[in-house]
């Protein structure tokens, strides 16, 4: 979308006639209408007269850039001066065209501005893609750290379970007459196994909740 902002109807219509075959040209007679149009749809390039009644061209340009910093500004003015050129630079304008228009110059300036915005949008999309890859990489690293923590924390209880089970496996066949003391010791060891098993279950549930 090309947005032509000028309080003079003549330049607005002239630019629309010049550019409508190649671009979707929207016209705004003042800054307020320009901002309304920019909020309704994305604007690629705004051709903007600096001197307008009501909201000034400078204020309009600043507000358009605030809405979308990628909007390309082409400043139009019938009052060329060092000061207006300085204002155009400060506003981040990509071109500065005097009135009356040189038609080939206007076409070339608009084409350059459209291509410039395309490059900026492609660069932003690439930056977002890179950032997304970084986020995914960080998530993968975080998951790996969680898995490592799970293995580390569960290793202790599993070691106890393994040791107690092996001890019982070797000791029970040699016991022919279970005395009360032996029975109590076995119960205590089995209770320890149960505690460590429950500990493993608790750790697993805790880490699984972090992963969800």
**Structural class of the helices, strands and pairings?**
alpha/beta
Residues in helix, %: 55-70%
* Biggest β-sheet: strands ordered side by side in the sheet: 2-1-3-4-5
* Count of DSSP-assigned helices: 6
Strand content is 5-15%
Characterization of the model:
The protein has 212 residues and is of the alpha/beta class. 67% of the residues lie in helices and 11% in strands. The chain has helices spanning 9-19, 31-40, 57-67, 82-90, 103-171, 180-211, and strands at 2-5, 25-28, 45-49, 72-77, 95-98. A 5-stranded parallel β-sheet has the order 2-1-3-4-5, sandwiched between helices. Helix 4 (82-90) links the parallel strand 4 (72-77) and strand 5 (95-98). Helix 2 (31-40) packs parallel to helix 3 (57-67) and helix 5 (103-171) runs antiparallel to helix 6 (180-211). The longest helix is centred in the middle third of the chain and has 69 residues, at 103-171. The chain is rod-shaped.
Lay out the secondary structure:
Elements (H helix, E strand, L loop, with lengths): L1 E4 L3 H11 L5 E4 L2 H10 L4 E5 L7 H11 L4 E6 L4 H9 L4 E4 L4 H69 L8 H32 L1
Parallel strand pairs: 1-2, 1-3, 3-4, 4-5
Helix pairs in contact: 2-3, 5-6
């Amino acid at each position: 979308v090309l947005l032509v902002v000028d309080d003079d109807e003549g330049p607005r219509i002239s630019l629309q006639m010049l550019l409508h075959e190649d671009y979707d040209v929207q016209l705004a007679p003042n800054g307020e209408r320009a901002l309304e149009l920019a909020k309704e749809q994305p604007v690629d390039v705004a051709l903007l007269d600096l001197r307008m009644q009501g909201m000034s061209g400078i204020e309009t340009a600043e507000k358009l850039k605030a809405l979308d910093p990628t909007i390309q500004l082409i400043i139009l003015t019938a009052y060329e001066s060092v000061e207006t050129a300085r204002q155009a630079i400060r506003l981040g304008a990509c071109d500065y065209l005097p009135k009356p228009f040189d038609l080939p110059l206007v076409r070339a300036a608009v084409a350059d501005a459209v291509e410039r915005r395309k490059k900026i949008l492609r660069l932003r999309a690439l930056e977002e893609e890179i950032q997304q890859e970084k986020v995914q990489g960080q998530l993968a690293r975080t998951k790996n750290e969680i898995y490592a923590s799970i293995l580390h924390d569960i290793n202790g209880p599993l070691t106890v379970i393994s040791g107690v089970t092996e001890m019982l496996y070797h000791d029970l066949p040699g016991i022919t007459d279970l005395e009360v003391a032996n029975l109590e010791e076995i119960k205590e060891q089995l209770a320890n196994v149960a505690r460590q098993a429950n500990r493993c279950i608790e750790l697993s549930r805790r880490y699984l909740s972090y992963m969800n």
